[in-house]
Description:
Chain A has 501 residues and is of the alpha/beta class. Helices cover 34% and strands 25% of the residues of chain A. Chain A is built from 18 helices and 24 strands. Chain B has a single domain, classed as ABC transporter involved in vitamin B12 uptake, BtuC, CATH 1.10.3470. Helix content of chain B is 67%, strand content 1%. Chain B contains 17 helices and 2 strands. In chain B, strands 1-2 form a two-stranded antiparallel ribbon. Classes of the chains: A alpha/beta (501), B mainly alpha (410).
Amino acid sequence: MRGITKRFPGIVANDRVNFDLRPGEVHAILGENGAGKSTLMNVLYGLYHPDEGEIRVKGEPATFASAKDAIRSGIGMVHQHFMLIPVMTVAENIVLANEPTREGVFFDRDAAEQRVAQLSRSYKLAIDPRAKVQNIGVGQEQRVEILKALYRAADVLILDEPTAVLTPQEAGELFEILRTLVREGLSVIFISHKLNEVLEIADRITVLRRGKMIDTVPREGATEEGLARMMVGREVLLRVEKTPAEQGGEPLLEVEDLHVLDDRKLPAVKGVSLSVRAGEIVGIAGVDGNGQSELIEALTGLRKRESGRVMIAGNEVERPSARRMLDAGLGHIPEDRQRRGLVLEFTIAENTQIHDYNREPMSRFGWIFPRRFIELARRLIEEFDVRGGGPTTKASALSGGNQQKVVAAREISRDPKVLIAAQPTRGLDVGAIEYLHRRLVEERDEGRAILLVSLELEEILSLSDRVLVIYEGEIVGEHGADASEEAIGMEMLGAKREEVA
Amino acid sequence: MSESMAPTTPPEPDTPPTTVAGRLELLHRAGGIAVPVATAVLAFAIGGLVVLATGHNPFLAYRDILNGAGLNWIAHPWDANTVHTAPYNLTQTLLQTTTLILTGLAVAFAFRCGLFNIGGQGQYFMGLFVASWVGTSFVNMTRPVHILLGIGAAALAGAAWAAIAGFLKAAVGAHEVITTIMLNWIAYWIGSYLFQQGGPLQGAANKPLDIPISADIANSAKLPVFWGDPDLQGLHIGFFVAIAALIVFWALLNRTTLGYEVRAVGYNPDAAAYGGIKVRTNYVRAMAISGAFAGLAGGLDMLGYLFHVGTSDVQASSIGFLGIAVALLGRNTAVGVGLAALLFGALLFGTTHGLQSNVIDPSLAGHLTEIIQGLVVLFVGADLLIIAVWRAGGRLRKRAPKTPAAEAAS
Lengths: 501, 410
């Protein structure tokens, strides 16, 4: 790909990007969110048309009108969100749109299953062709996607953020698979914003920043620090600097034997007990959908508890509601800032007061003083370095990172005893992540009790003083700050519980 | 805010707002004042095409309608030809405007809480009926007290009627569109029962014939008329009540904690709940306030110029439904509702009298308002379509090389 430029209204998503892929290599594309990685790959896969530049496949100029053309040229893509049909079997999904037939009309199931089994053997991708997709795990689904591309005779495989949904173990298995594929002669494009993965798997690394190609470097000699600098354009603190937590703080958040149901009225949290002391960060690690959301909602009064006790600073909160929990001293950075954390149509000033609009000095006898909203918002914008707007800017006009800063500013400025941070950095770029992590550690040092729930194990490990592992609604493990990724990863998959049973 | 730096990273993909209020907000941002004006112009243009199809000049027809509404008096107050008729016409237009402001606010307020109040008609009826009862009872009361009691009771009746729908939504999640439509019919049949021959509020005693109609309210309950002849349906002080209601609507939404809650719930109920706002309480409260506006409209009509109501009036009334078009065209804002109410008030009265058959087909005249009303609702209902067209246009403009990229961020 030479000189690829792709413009969208108001932005240049790709600015004269050059990219080349050699046979039999893993080439990583590294960049922050919005750097133009996905745009570049969508151009290559025929989903977007470049405004400028040319694509050559094996030396021949190629123009792809659609993904079909790209597939015909041997390019396969595994999207971040899988595109499989849950009620169909693995084999059916793989051969879809290219089914083997008997007498030209009838679907030949046996042939399909044989072909899939054969593919799975030759690339060492263990999978049961007859299993229904809805019954297999995320890691397996990803294999199905890879096999689907291989079935269509892809020799170039594009993987868009493939590890985002995987546990460390599953990611390790994926890397093994990729190495096998490369040995078989395939080439792999690996899109990621995670430095350690890229260094582990890639032969060469191309870094994009703000739509521009910064450089292509071989893995040898590349370091996380160097890559991060290229990604962000300045020195970045990769490791969160923090001192060990002070011992013996008061337990500010105590949970005893908490049971919560999910939306389908099935048990989602099954007898969780935990405590968070003043001045410590407790991380909850787990694969998505193991009761984390229900746990947080129950703690913050947004979801009914079936049984159990929650105490803040030693006081039990009875008949909990969102308002009572807030009043008891709880702050909450919700996992979905656009759905819960902000009213996007409100201004920044209005959003900063969603908990306190009905108190003095923001209002008196039900009458609101908008100027006080604005004054306070102006202070918070400055203190938390929110960019892209002033107090009267609509929240929807801000970037994700700045939206999150508004949420964090609001929650922290209320001086909570306990701060629950759920996925505080999801979808944010390195700069914003760095800021929020530093801020969480600072708030810890101020003596707050912080409960961090994240799907990113790395985030949990770098911030937490203690780590709890949640699996199917139960706490299955507890670790100190020096816990190993492997041990936690095993527990996230439920290994420990099965041992006990 | 103008940032010196052009946006360097693509904005997050647009997540379409989930609530009706959110969608309308998006429309508002996409087009500002231009979209409602374009909506009105387009509706009038299509209405004009209908006039044209019947063989008349639409410009003359619209001119005569607006003249018939008395709006010519504003332009030429001392014209000898109109000096006697035009002021009267204007008072009649403003009588309609008074009612439409309030039924429009009844839709607009609920809308800002994310609720679609189709029940303005039923709430208006309840206000009308209760005002009729209060006006015909308590005949020995002093005038101000009787008037205040009548107006207050009418507003409360509308509020209670609408609160039923709000409560059903809060308690069991029944959709307010369905329940308010049902409540309209219940109110309609209550009216038919109350004023039928032998009905509890039928007032045959002071009528020459035994007809299904209520007795006239007592003089002590009638609103003072400040413009025109009280015996010839002059403009009553309820007009100022409606103007005050516009101000109250604005202040309530933008300057009170109640309004903050209503707007938060309207835009994003999840975020509101997270903030500690009781979403269900707000549904009931917003519906009740909406109903109070509509009930007030019924009360002012009864005490201001109707004085009695019959079963045939109940069957013919659709002023509550017209409030939906007023609110939509007015973008659920105070100023917008005021202007839209004036426009529809002029249409309503201007199409009912004095039109020459060589200017507009008489059988069409009465229905022109309904055509335009329907078109307005249709166009605003198709808001997403308009946004799509609007954005497609925006994209085309941005392809032009010299357009500053930073514009996209604002």
